[in-house]
Design brief:
Blueprint (H helix, E strand, L loop, with lengths): L2 E3 L17 E5 L6 H11 L9 E3 L5 E3 L11 H4 L2 E6 L10 H18 L6 E3 L19 H11 L8 E3 L6 H8 L3 H4 L13 E3 L12 H11 L8 E5 L4 E4 H15 L6
Parallel strand pairs: 1-4, 2-5, 2-6, 3-5
Antiparallel strand pairs: 3-4, 7-8, 9-10
């Protein structure tokens, strides 16, 4: 899983949270999308913009809204010491999707690790699920028990001892294929789009299903790691014509040549 940028337009720069985070507070908007709620908060209520820290769509897509900046979701006494996660929908009348629940567990576990929290610090906005506000939010059908149980399970210590030093061209996906593990979830301190070369990351144990990469993908990974191609994106193959071709094409040619050298006439 990954967290996507929301790319929302704010009235003013967001204010970083400097105090210790004490709660993860769950919400539902009771209607509308992330952008429509952002426009309502900003243009109708006169706020800086959407008040939540994160937003999870019914298909499980996670967006960072305010991130680790002060929110506007649970009142002045809580906004600076909590994360507000909004699950899109109206859970007084609807059911949360399995995709939302899975993403919520993943995100809550990630935030709990970052802030030193436990699953018991996950609450609802209203008093029904341990909150302090007189509101029905996040709705009677919110799957709070499953969210807490799943997060608690995800936070259980993994057997120690396995680490990996990141090399040039490696990604969470490629390392995950190597070890058969969900690497990103075990290393929330490193952003998915900027895994630093030389970083020592934890390799968890578990029943993660390892998928063997296709030969072409394996060739691309090897060529990228060795610095022969810069990435699977566009790569300048001919300096005379200035023509660009995809790294996948270059990798496929080298793979075919390797097969011919091995006597594979199908190449």
């Amino acid at each position: 899983m990954q967290i996507h940028p929301s790319n929302l337009n704010w009235r003013a720069p967001l204010t970083p949270t400097t105090r210790k985070i004490e709660r993860i507070i769950c919400h539902h908007p009771a209607g509308g999308t992330m952008r429509s709620n952002h426009n309502y908060h900003r243009d109708t209520l006169g706020w800086n913009g959407l008040g939540y820290n994160y937003w999870i769509e019914p298909n499980g897509t996670i967006y960072e809204v305010r991130g680790r900046n002060i929110g506007a979701h649970s009142g002045a006494s809580w906004n600076g010491i909590s994360y507000g996660i909004c699950f899109q929908g109206n859970f007084e009348t609807q059911l949360m999707t399995d995709e939302q629940l899975a993403s919520g567990i993943w995100l809550c576990a990630r935030l709990c690790r970052m802030e030193g929290l436990g699953a018991g610090e996950i609450v609802g906005h209203g008093k029904r699920f341990g909150g302090t506000s007189n509101t029905l939010c996040p709705g009677k059908n919110f799957r709070m028990a499953e969210l807490r149980t799943g997060t608690e399970e995800a936070l259980k210590p993994q057997p120690a001892g396995r680490t990996h030093t990141v090399r040039q061209g490696e990604t969470y996906w490629s390392i995950g294929q190597l070890y058969g593990a969900d690497i990103e979830a075990a290393n929330p301190q490193f952003p998915a789009n900027a895994l630093p070369v030389g970083a020592v990351i934890a390799i968890p144990f578990g029943d993660y299903k390892k998928e063997e990469p296709a030969p072409l993908q394996a060739a691309i990974d090897t060529l990228t790691r060795e610095g022969i191609i810069r990435s699977p994106e566009y790569w300048q193959a001919n300096s005379l014509t200035g023509r660009f071709v995809k790294g996948e094409f270059v990798a496929s040619l080298i793979l075919r040549m390797a097969k011919r050298l091995e006597g594979d006439k199908s190449a």
